[in-house]
Amino acid sequence: MTDVTFVGVLAVLVGLLFRWGFAVLPQEAWQIMAAVPIEREGSRMWRGCNFTFYGFFLAGASAASAALIIILACSIGVHPIAIVLVMALMLGLCVPSTRIIARIVEKKRHTLTIGGASFVGLVVAPLALWAVEEISGGYRVPMAPGLAALSIGYALGEGLGRLGCISFGCCYGRPLPQCSPRIRHIFRRFNFVFLGHTKKVAYEGCLEGAEVVPIQAVTALIYAATGLIGTALFLRGYFSLAFAFTIIATLLWRALSELLRADYRGEGRISAYQVLAVVGILYSLIVTLLLPSESVPSPDLWTGLLSLWDPVIILSLQTLWLCVFLFTGKSTVTECLMTFRVIGSESASKASRDCSAGEA
After folding, report:
1. Do 199 and 208 contact (CB within 8 A), yes or no?
2. What is the pLDDT of residues 152-176, one digit of tens each?
3. Domain spans, the chain
């Protein structure tokens, strides 16, 4: 019952967050979160750097994903430091790949690809689990539960991270008039209309104000549901099944969702990301068949939850949030000009001039 309650509470919280995000994030006000002045532009203007809600939501999704991974791993007796080391090693490889793979595939400097990074993470995950055991001098994460926890955290994290895509207007869907009658019928009431000329759907796709397929929302729902189902399977002890299910479901949808997207995904009718998704599915099936049979304790959810109440874990999650926010939140495609003044300074100056005129 505790496991059911945990998954149910997660589902309710995620559902409420999605309901709010789908309604408000396409609006213009939800792209730029803050602006920081950098250098003076003229006598009274400053050129500033924008920090976006895209980075805010990706940082939150990453922290939530990491927290879930820690809960699941520690529920079977894994030392918290071991799983933190695994995630640190994987993030050190996956985060830079978000820009590197996007630059190779899309030939653009100022863009990110979570799809490319997820493929890198899938490939290096077994190596990361093995490497931590070798270099840590005793800390160990069992292979099947470790891969399952990582894949579940990835599914839920990417689902939550799609809120950032809605906010920035990237990864956008096709205009409804260009879709088949069946697709138009499905999304005639539930679609996105993005507002704001600085959103990617506007400056790249020229689709500001147009009704488009809400592909980010559909992806968010499918990925989050996959992560929640995977969590339930893990807590029941079906580790290999949880790994295979979450990876295959997420990668299969990634390949299919490309058909409903309108943003640039590289040359050719079949994108490189679709190819990576299919290769990833085959790779995950091979890994599942080769997973060793190990004796692992039955998951104890309370032990996993209590593992979060550790200063090292709390600081690690905060550090992760900050690093991801600074890496993904600092906009490289938008800028701003700003000016500063003291409140009431204009009326004070006018009063001073009037007094001077009266004395004369």
Report:
1. yes
2. 999 999 999 999 999 999 989 999 9
3. 2-359
